[in-house]
What does this fold into?
Amino acid sequence: MESRIKIGEVITIFDKKNSEHHDYPVIGINRDKSFMPTVANLDGVDLSKYKIVTKGTFVFSGMQTGRDVCIRIGLYDDEEPALISPAYTTFVVDEKKGILPEYFFMFFNRDESDRYGWFISDSSVRSNLDLPRFLDIEIPLPSIDEQRKVVNAWRALREIKFQNEKKAEPLMQVCQSFIQELKHKYPLQEIGPFIEECDERNASSSFNESNLRGVTSEGIFDFSKAKTQGIDFSKYKIVQKNNFAYNPSRINLGSIAINNEESYIISPMYIVFKVKNESSSIILPDFLNIYFRRKEFLRSTLFYASGSVRDTFSFKEMQRVRVPLPPIDIQQAIINIYNCAKEAKQIAAEADRLSRDVCPMLIQHVINQAL
It folds into this structure.
């Protein structure tokens, strides 16, 4: 038979104030139940009233649960303590009651838990999930061994995520440091002579909505979120492999990418260009892409934008961009390092997705087995 237990029976409120004025980072909780640096203005705020969270502490906020269909709850896992607003409830889970803290957290990473929180939240404007009602929620309680199986899978995926994130960051920094050094070793040259604009249209309508992409601020071609009903895709631009595409009004935010995959179509408002074939022995497209990911470059596009209402960065301005051009073998070495970092980031992202998508299914599986 399945065992169930109320939250109030397995937790202990942990309410430690920052009375000694520790200089810990101040954090908040995202809707995805992860912690982030606070976005609140802390000027003049008395941080002695803030709560200290340490590794293994849960943070809960029932505010706007019904509005967002999300129970904001996080399990703090960093070694360094942090501070959080006194509006949050902080508590620890008592493993002696037969429940693992990670299993408790994973239970609330399910859409079903968020929907239930929405269902039982109050009818106020903010649709809050008050603490007494939260503490009254019942949680299915499989055996510790079954809980541990799911927790171990979750821990393994989280470890893969964190380890690969740690690998990616220094590799990215190495790439940017190399490029910065190149600027002092090789003269800067305008890229205009080496690139050409592409204006190939989908005139035959061979590409459709499934091939439509946009460029994210992370420099990735992603499925477009634009409404496409009634759109004439014959006017859209084709982005072939090794072509660049950028949004002239959002390039300063990072909206520029190189297409390393199959051909796509993109909105006519985008500018598409490529490195000329005869310039392939002078500049590699992927090297140019790494240069475009530099914050210094992205900021400069806003400065050199035309000054129109939308501050557009034209292709003429792109042609005036100046980059250092080391020998091809040096460019390729930088590309190789960048690709290693990119692969690590992709592995981390996939592990994060699996921990959020697969682990809730494992939770449901062990719950069903306990029925």
User: Anything to note?
Assistant: Residues 234 and 348 are 38 Å apart (CA to CA).
